[in-house]
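Worked example 4.2. Below are the chains of a multi-component assembly; read each line carefully before continuing.
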Amino acid sequence: MEYKLIVNKDTKPVEFDTVDNNHLKATINETEYTLDYSLVSDRQIHLTVNGKGVNAFVADGPEGKCIIINGIQYIVQDEDVLNQSSTKKRGGSNLPTEITPITPSVVISVLVKEGDRVKKGQSVVVLSAMKMEITLSSAFNGTVTAVNTQDGDKVAPGDILVDIEADDESTEDEKSEA
Amino acid sequence: MFKKILIANRGEIARRVLFTCREMGVTTVAVYSDVDKEAIHVIEADEAVCLGDAEPSQSYLNIDKIIAAAKQTGAEGIHPGYGFLAENAEFAARCEQEGIAFIGPPAQVIRDLGDKITARNIMLKGGVPVIPGMTQAGANPKEMAKAAEEIGYPVLIKASAGGGGKGIRIVRTPAEIEESCVAASREAQSAFGDGTIYLEKFFDKAKHIEFQILADNQGNAIHVLERECSIQRRHQKIIEETPSPAVTPQLREEMGAAAVTAAKASGYVNAGTVEFLLDKDKKFYFLEVNTRLQVEHPITEMITGIDLVREQLKIAAGEPLTLKQEDIVGRGHAIECRVYAEDPENNFFPSPGKIVYIREPSGPGVRNDCGVYTGFEVPVNYDPIISKLVTHAGDREQNIQRMVKSLKEYILLGIKTPIPFLIDVLQSQPFQKGEVYTDFIQTHFQDWKPQFKDEDIARLVYIVDEINANRRKKTAVTADNEIPSPFFTLGNWRLN
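Applying the procedure described above to all two chains together yields the following structure tokens:
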């Protein structure tokens, strides 16, 4: 079987065979691994990889599996799973295209109202999490079509706080030609 | 000794105070806000009173509600922990008025030492060396410029009414002084409602050395050795150690004596900390007194075997100090690392969330003062401190190894932590050599990124976990569903 696994934006194919109970042979980019493992608990896996013992701790997260080895957290994702679930996003922007918090937060202030025109990079909502202020900005030029939150609301990642309809790209081109 | 006390705090410090109370047979009352209903300090206390809304002003900072909780439960004393109301003179005074023992210094002492200028003047009068600086706060930039000339550049502008990095500016040349004063004053006005500022000499390669003090209400005062807290980020401490590699026995005696003088000069009672700055010529200067038990107190406990909370309770109950200065001896070396719910790869942004799994390190000389447990949802409304990891060993070199090993064993799933950052700081050459100054992180770790050495192993673990993933889903299913749906029992499947 083969998985394509992403760690730190690097995708590598992992081919493996389960040989016996709790025993695997795997190949990653031509490096071969022989491993035995025991499922110590729901969270802890002990592996012996090419003779060396490793303890790893695993949790499922929204971004993939979070795996801790030797004090470092690795987020590992399956490329096939990602492709199935992601929605095509508008390209070319390095700001998240949705106005949603990155961590559970409290809304301190909403800087726009329905009908406002916004520019790319303009601050839209100010949030507070653990006594730090975080500002969310618009990823493109557009118009605010809805404000779904108000000062004092408790919000979580996934909540769309402000809906912004991006300007039609063809309108932009016409403008720059004129 | 008190029969019952209330702990006006939350998280790891509330739990730590509870530990000592339980040892002493003192009944404990916890207070909590709505989001802390299942917090560890609540479930481990004998009694608990809900204060209401998570917003601190409605709960942990609400003096009326906390006093009411103490009266309702018959608590004879209140331990304020650190932060929240611990250094609030009004709260200490209310306790005194209501006949409840405030486990800390008297309100007037908190007031005096809480005002930076008053504190400096007390120390000057007492003969404690003070950082060259102004003895009057002000706001007039021209006056400030003149004072800066007298003190000598570089100078540090500080807010008279508060701390936490607000209103602080370093000024290196006369050309910048007036503008910087205006800006700092504006910042202080907005943060503390008081724009008065003052100037101090600024030291470039300085170490932050503090002394633990204990004083009873009969005039006896001792120091309990020093702590070095030079590793800070945004003026917040993250690693503390004792003994300090820079403090010689001679310096320890001099600074210790100055700390005791500071305690007596201010009429101090109970536990506190006198902070000094040590410049590169090994001259020390008084910085301020923290009129509370500090976050980093465990390292002092580890090298002396003294339980500082126990001493606090005894002093507050009116007992005289039984410890004498000559009894105070430190053995070995202790380090504390503060573990926060923060993302070290994302500018240490808070990373609240549910603790999916926690496994604390253990072994000889390992102590973890922890405020969370598996399944606990870390609230967004408070400081993101998860725990303080403390290690103690025979000497500094051995202890650094012990702390690194313990950090690697410390598993926290569900949140991000600065553990990889702490490991790299401790293993760095400057730290190992003791070349630690308050600008350590800016100098050596400004653009730190974690070292990912085991990416392929992580991939292998992913696969092992994935092909055995139903072991976790099975436990969830039996709890929630009566008839498990085939989608859960079928196990892993994919289109191939």
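Take a moment to check your reading of the output against the notes. Chain B has 18 helices and 22 strands. Chain B touches chain A through 49 residues (CB under 8 Å).
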